[in-house]
Specification:
Elements: H1 28-39, H2 41-49, E1 58-60, E2 73-75
Parallel strand pairs: 1-2
Helix pairs in contact: 1-2
């Protein structure tokens, strides 16, 4: 139980979401199109409208990144 005698300030850290296409994915084309939507201007607008600040450009790491996504990504 939390007892409080007055106002408190709680400081948190930002959430960072991630998305991936598993090697075993059956529809890699659809997954690629979905990720492209999430990181394009329309997806960023939806994210922003919900109070989240998108990371622009989106960051990526790993191997096998689809060519369609490469122009929108910062590879780290």
């Amino acid at each position: 139980m939390i007892h409080s005698t007055g106002p408190r300030m709680i400081i948190g850290r930002p959430l960072i979401y991630s998305i991936t296409i598993p090697e075993s994915a059956r529809n890699t084309e659809g997954a690629t199109e979905f990720i492209n939507f999430v990181i394009d201007e329309q997806g960023q607008a939806i994210t922003s409208s919900e109070g989240e600040i998108p990371i622009v450009p989106a960051m990526a790491t790993g191997y096998g990144i689809p060519d369609l996504l490469l122009p929108r990504l910062q590879i780290v």
